[in-house]
Design brief:
heterodimer, A: about 150 residues, alpha+beta, Alpha-D-Glucose-1,6-Bisphosphate, Chain A, domain 4, seven-stranded antiparallel β-sheet, 7 strands, globular, B: about 100 residues, Arc Repressor Mutant, subunit A, three-stranded antiparallel β-sheet, 3 strands, about 60% helix
């Protein structure tokens, strides 16, 4: 078992296009499912409101780490921070990194999320239960988004 | 939980308890170069992570392995991983299905 998540995905779009989708806060919000208050700034928090149906009451917050043009975008956050009445700020956040690389047909995106070992076990299982429903809702959302834009 | 397992002594303790037989502190200290106190401290870390449970039996506590938190953790990471797959699929659709400008 690993304490990090690693993903690689090839995108048939120029690196510059993917970079914009990642780092322009309005574009990011569209595919991620969050309405952000303002642009991403390194070292600063980015806040917004979740837009998944049924989860619109949830706030969304990350702290931007690195923005290295067309190469690396990273932030820390508290994954599964789904209880609006709970203060997660004392917990060690996980680090999410998006790395881009040019390839013949477009762009290779590598995603890494690390630091799960620092999340208290009790909170993990509780958050897990709450997120299961959230994810089902999100899947439906993706489906309708993709179909609507097809 | 990874931190709890990220120690050789604790991994050995878990490996021993994972054989299924609950053990007392004395049994776990036997054959180890560590003191009772040191073993007890490691067991506390494992108990806090939920990997080991203790139950009183007469004058001693018996420690046993609980696989559930590890299984749960794996399920969670799988779910999380799946969540990223879906999120990235949305990004893919977003950047690839756009009308050329």
């Amino acid at each position: 078992m690993n304490d990090r998540i690693e993903k690689r995905i090839e995108l048939k779009a120029p690196v510059s296009r993917v970079w914009r989708a990642l780092t322009d806060y309005r574009e990011f919000g569209e595919w991620f499912g969050v309405k952000l208050d303002g642009p991403f700034v390194p070292g600063k928090a980015a806040r917004g409101q979740v837009t998944h149906p049924g989860y619109e009451h949830l706030k969304w917050e990350v702290v931007v780490q690195h923005i290295e043009a067309e190469r690396l975008f990273s932030f820390t956050w508290h994954p599964f921070a789904v209880d609006p009445n709970k203060d997660y700020s004392a917990e060690t956040p996980t680090l999410v990194e998006f790395r881009l690389k040019e390839i013949p047909n477009g762009c290779l995106l590598q995603l890494t999320e690390s630091g799960f070992d620092k999340i208290p076990a009790a909170r993990r299982s509780e958050a897990f239960g709450m997120n299961e429903g959230g994810w089902t809702a999100q899947m439906k959302n993706i489906q309708s988004h993709v179909t609507a834009n097809a | 939980m990874f931190a709890a397992l990220g120690d050789e002594t604790r991994l050995l303790l878990v490996a021993r308890l994972a054989q299924g037989m609950p053990c007392s502190l004395s049994q776990l200290t036997e054959g180890s170069r560590l003191t009772r106190q040191a073993i007890a401290k490691h067991l506390r870390v494992l108990a806090e992570a939920g990997i080991v449970q203790s139950a009183r039996s007469g004058r001693e506590s018996l420690f046993k392995f609980d696989p559930k938190p590890l299984e749960k953790m794996k399920d969670q990471l799988d779910l999380w991983s799946e969540q990223w797959d879906q999120t990235l699929a949305r990004l893919k659709a977003f950047v690839e299905n756009e009308d050329p400008k």
